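Quick one, C-alpha cells below. Sequence please?
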C-alpha cells in the first residue's frame, strides 16, 4: 500500500490567506482525485499571540501592524472577498470587526486531531470568524463549533484549563518557528518541502503530481 502524502498546514484561524490557500489546495486535491492519498494536519501559529481577550478593531489592528491605510484595507478586503467567493467561501468584512485571540482555538484543534475532525473544526472556526461575525475567542462560540462537528464539547473544553495542553501548543509553535516559519500559510509536504502563501491551484497541482509520482516510483521497488 502506498504511503499517504503528509501535508502540514501551519496557519491561524483568523488568517484570510490561510483560508484561501487551503481552499485552493483542497481544489487541487479534488481535481487530481487524490483525496484518499493525502493526510492533512493543521499546525498552530498565532498571528497575534499578545492579542488581549477583548480583541482589537481589525481596521486599527491592520493600521498599527502593517501601516495600511483604510483605503488599502478596503481594497484588500474586497479582493479577498472576490477570491473567496470563487472558492465557495464567504468573507464578510464589516467596520466593527474585531481581531481575536486564537490560542484556545488552537488547543481545540489539537484535540480534534485525535478524532479525525481537525479540518472540519478548522473550517468551522474560520467560517464563524469570517462569515458569521463571531468572536472565536469566546468559549460559547468554541463550544458551538465543537458541537457542530459532533465532538464532545464538555471534554474538549476541559483542555482549555489544562496546563499540559497549553504547553503542547506552545511547543508545537516553537518547533515550526525553529524551522524558520514566520508567515502563514506555510504548507509543508512530507516534512521535506514547503510552499508559503496562498499559491494558485495549478502550483499545488504541480507539487502534488510530483509527490504522487514519487510515491508510485517508491512502490515499484517494494516487495
Amino acid at each position: 500500500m502506498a504511503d499517504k502524502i503528509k501535508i502540514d498546514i501551519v496557519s491561524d484561524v483568523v488568517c484570510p490567506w490561510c483560508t484561501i490557500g487551503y481552499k485552493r489546495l483542497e481544489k487541487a486535491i479534488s481535481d487530481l482525485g487524490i483525496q484518499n492519498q493525502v493526510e492533512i494536519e493543521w499546525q498552530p501559529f498565532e498571528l497575534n499571540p499578545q492579542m488581549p481577550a477583548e480583541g482589537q478593531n481589525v481596521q486599527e489592528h491592520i493600521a498599527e501592524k502593517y501601516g495600511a491605510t483604510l483605503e488599502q484595507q478596503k481594497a484588500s478586503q474586497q479582493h479577498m472577498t472576490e477570491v473567496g467567493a470563487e472558492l465557495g467561501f464567504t468573507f464578510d468584512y464589516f467596520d466593527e470587526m474585531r481581531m481575536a485571540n486564537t490560542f484556545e482555538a488552537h488547543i481545540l484543534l489539537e484535540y480534534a486531531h485525535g478524532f479525525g475532525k481537525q479540518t472540519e473544526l478548522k473550517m468551522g472556526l474560520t467560517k464563524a470568524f469570517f462569515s458569521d461575525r463571531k468572536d472565536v475567542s469566546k468559549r460559547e462560540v468554541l463550544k458551538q463549533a465543537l458541537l457542530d462537528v459532533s465532538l464532545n464539547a464538555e471534554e474538549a473544553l476541559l483542555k482549555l484549563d489544562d496546563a499540559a495542553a497549553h504547553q503542547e501548543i506552545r511547543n508545537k509553535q516553537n518547533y515550526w518557528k525553529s524551522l524558520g516559519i514566520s508567515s502563514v500559510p506555510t504548507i509543508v509536504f512530507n516534512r521535506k518541502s514547503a510552499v508559503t502563501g496562498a499559491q494558485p491551484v495549478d502550483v499545488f497541482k504541480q507539487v502534488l503530481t510530483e509527490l504522487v509520482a514519487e510515491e508510485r516510483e517508491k512502490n515499484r521497488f517494494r516487495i
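The CA atoms of residues 53 and 138 lie 9 Å apart. The first strand starts at residue 5 and ends at 11.
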